[in-house]
Design a protein that fits this description.
Layout (H helix, E strand, L loop, with lengths): L5 E3 L5 E3 H13 L1 H6 L6 H20 L10 H13 L4 H8 L1
Helix pairs in contact: 1-3, 4-5
Length: 98
Amino acid sequence: MNVSGWRRTKGGGHVDAERFSRVVHMDRWELDEWLGSLTRVAASTRSVYQRDLRDAARWLGEIGRDDPATVTRRDLRGYLARLDRDGYARRTTARKAS
C-alpha cells in the first residue's frame, strides 16, 4: 500500500484500501446471506433492512467490533443512543433496533 491509501492489485490496477477494508468487514457479517433468507418480505422492506444493517455494522466496525460475535449489549445500546443523538425519530430507531 502506498501513502495515498491506494494499493496495487494483481492486474496492475489500484483499489482504495479504505473501501476494500469496509467490503471485507461487511463480508464478516454475512448480510447478503441473511437478507437472502428473507423470503416473505417485500423488496422495499428488504432494502430498508439492508440499509439499516449496513449502517449498524459500519458503526460497530468504527468502534472496533468487526466481528458479530464480539458485539455486546452495551455496544447495541451505544448505537441506539447515537441514533437518538443524530435526531432519528423513535419509530425509526425502533425499526433499526428490530
